[in-house]
Amino acid sequence: MAQVLLKNIAKYYNKTKVIEELNLSIKDQEFVVLVGPSGCGKSTLLRMIAGLEEISDGELYIGDRLSNELEPKDRNIAMVFQNYALYPHLTVKDNISFGLRATKMDKQEIEKRVAHAADILGVTHLLDRKPSELSGGQSQRIAMGRAIVRQPEVFLFDEPLSNLDAKLRANMRVEIKKLHQRVKTTSIYVTHDQVEAMTLADRIVILKGGDIQQIGTPMDLYHTPANVFVATFIGNPPMNILNGTLTQNNDNSDENWCVKFSDTESLSFSIDKPLTTYQDKPVKLGVRPEDIRVLRNNEQPQSYERVFSVQATVIEPLGADTTIFTDIAGMEIKAITDGRHTIHLNDPLKIAIDTRHLHLFDAQTEERIFSTQVSVKVQN
Amino acid sequence: MSNLPTNMKAVPDMKKLLTWTVLCIGGLAMIMPLIFMFITSLKVGEEVYTLSFWPDEPTLENYIYLFENSNFLIWFFNSFVVAIVTTISVLFFDSLVGYTLCKFEFKGKKLVFVAILSTLLIPTEMLVIPWYLMVKDFGWLDTYWGIMFPGMISGFGVFLMKQFFETVPDDYIHAARIDGLNEFQIWWKVAMPMVGPALSALAIFTFLGNWTAFLWPMIVSNDPELYTVPVGLASFSGEFNTDWELIMAGASVATIPTLIVFILLQKYIVRGVVMSGLKG
Ligand SMILES: Nc1ncnc2c1ncn2[C@@H]1O[C@H](COP(=O)(O)OP(=O)(O)OP(=O)(O)O)[C@@H](O)[C@H]1O
Ligand SMILES: [Mg+2]
């Protein structure tokens, strides 16, 4: 097992820069997920770690070894591919043992490892089949088996679940988590599915256009997103972003700050941090859909909630809860409400925004200025 | 009521009938020369020049003469050697070059590919003279190598294989690289098995092409011991008379390997033709 260290890593294809000055330190036994939109360089980064793609600049350490120039086979890694890359002409058993046989390993040792891996993954009964006789989920397991038998220092996964249907994906996600808890091999996992990222990762690395946006635990990213991109990337449905102007309230109420969306609509909240540099400046206010409640008839809001009168424009029932689409001052927002709460299209509604969990972003840079969550005054 | 179903069936039946008629006519047109060839091979003397469907006295005399009094067996062997060796060579080199052009990036790759493609534009007839001069200078006249060398690699095969290696996802190659195979092993053990149908198609085309090749083998071999079947048979056609019955007998025998290849590899031929989008 090993740590992985990326120092000022860069990748150019001819003149186009895909990744620039990327720094990342992955601890031994850690499960790190690289996530980001299509084309942001996730696979490229992973392939550079695997040695399948040349590193244009910077230093890569796997364990304590500088690995830039090492052949893939000498890097002590194993990789699971999106399309599994099972050799169609070989049986499952031969597929799993292919790499070991290439290294001229002792036959008995190979048998032992294959049996062990098959046992872990529950595929012992499939060993004599050809890949064409396997289902997607089974192929996926075999691909993992091929990685496990190598007993590598680092596992690399490139969107291993994206060819599976939703239910199977959820199952395999748990399997991968269990596997990691069992073998504890350092893992780097690429996906563009934020649910996979949240559920699997010890730490998530969010990439956009080859740049790291934020590194942190799933909860870090969720509660204190570094910028609008991260805020809207993590969480489903994504965080609502409302454009407005930050103003200071002059009255002596507890709510000392206010974001004005329009002449008539604004949201007041209280924070104990001086925001004077942003006073009267445009800002973006972020509110998660789960922090907006639809009030039932005659229900009174809590003291930390601000109420807006709106109409639902789209209703998405999901069973356990329902997503309501509506707007404040012409800006679309989504709110999540209890699935048992019946709401009709275009009914007048009162929604309550929880001011304890607001995020404020710079309108220009989109960097986070402040999240109320951490420092909100306890008002009850 | 009872004739309603038959009425409804009548339409597809008409379609089927039409298809079958056209196919039968086409098939007959194709097979007629072969039948004519075989029947003629059973005739002797003046009867050869009559259009009778079945000879008055069918005889195997021509075959016996062919095997006992001519070099036919040697020619058959020569053809076989030439066709097999060139086929193996084409399979090996074309797929190796095609794979390299498909999966590797290197300077001048485009140029190399275009150069290989451009060889397809030059007809054999134009190449025959330079080839002949080469063969003469190198002393390859009247050798197997002289007959075979122009066909050891084919530009068409390189192109075909390059296209087919495109269907092998890079992930397989990456996986094999991580598994520790060297590049040659990756080609041989991973990529080649995945283009099996393309290899069969190329093998068939190459084998048949060389089995029936006439112009170049005729030019390069003067020694009757080195004739291939088509060249040998042509030698029955003299300045004053042509032994059609012998030519037909020889051609009938020469068809056998072709038939075997077709029957054995029928499904690959169809698939190969469909996949490569060419006519056989
Ligand atoms: N061989 C190449 N030549 C030039 N540009 C390339 C090459 N391979 C990848 N790129 C570019 O590098 C960028 C990153 O590609 P990469 O495959 O790493 O994206 P990704 O994050 O894995 O996306 P996805 O989620 O779609 O898999 C893309 O903009 C792509 O166009
Ligand atoms: Mg990718």
TrEMBL record, chain A:
Q: Gene name, please?
A: ugpC
Q: Please give the Pfam families that the UniProt record associates with this protein.
A: ABC_tran, OB_MalK
Q: What is this protein called?
A: sn-glycerol-3-phosphate import ATP-binding protein UgpC
One GO term (biological process): carbohydrate transport
Is Membrane among this UniProt entry's keywords? Answer: yes
Gene Ontology CC terms, in alphabetical order = ATP-binding cassette (ABC) transporter complex, substrate-binding subunit-containing
What are the alphabetically sorted keywords of the record?
ATP-binding, Cell membrane, Membrane, Nucleotide-binding, Translocase, Transport
Origin organism of this chain? Paraglaciecola arctica BSs20135
UniProt superkingdom:
Bacteria
Ranges for domain ABC transporter come to 4-234
Q: Which CDD domains match?
A: ABC_MalK_N (cd03301)
The record's GO molecular-function terms, alphabetically, read:
ABC-type transporter activity; ATP binding; ATP hydrolysis activity
**Does the record carry Protein biosynthesis as a key word?**
no
TrEMBL record, chain B:
Q: Does the keyword Cell membrane apply?
A: yes
Q: Which residues form the ABC transmembrane type-1 domain?
A: 76-265
- Which PROSITE patterns does the record associate with it? ABC_TM1 (PS50928)
What keywords appear on the UniProt entry? Answer: Cell membrane, Membrane, Sugar transport, Transmembrane, Transmembrane helix, Transport
The cellular location(s) given in this protein's UniProt record come to: Cell membrane
Report which superkingdom the organism of origin falls in.
Bacteria
One Pfam match, given by its short name, reads BPD_transp_1
**In what way does this protein cross or attach to the membrane?**
Multi-pass membrane protein
Q: Name one GO biological process term.
A: transmembrane transport
Query: Which Gene3D superfamilies does the UniProt entry name for this protein?
Result: MetI-like
Transmembrane stretches in the record are: 17-39, 72-99, 111-132, 144-165, 186-208, 246-265
Primary subcellular site in the record, as a coarse category = membrane
What would be one Gene Ontology cellular-component term for the protein? plasma membrane
Q: Which family does it belong to?
A: Belongs to the binding-protein-dependent transport system permease family.
In its UniProt entry, what is this protein called? Multiple sugar transport system permease protein
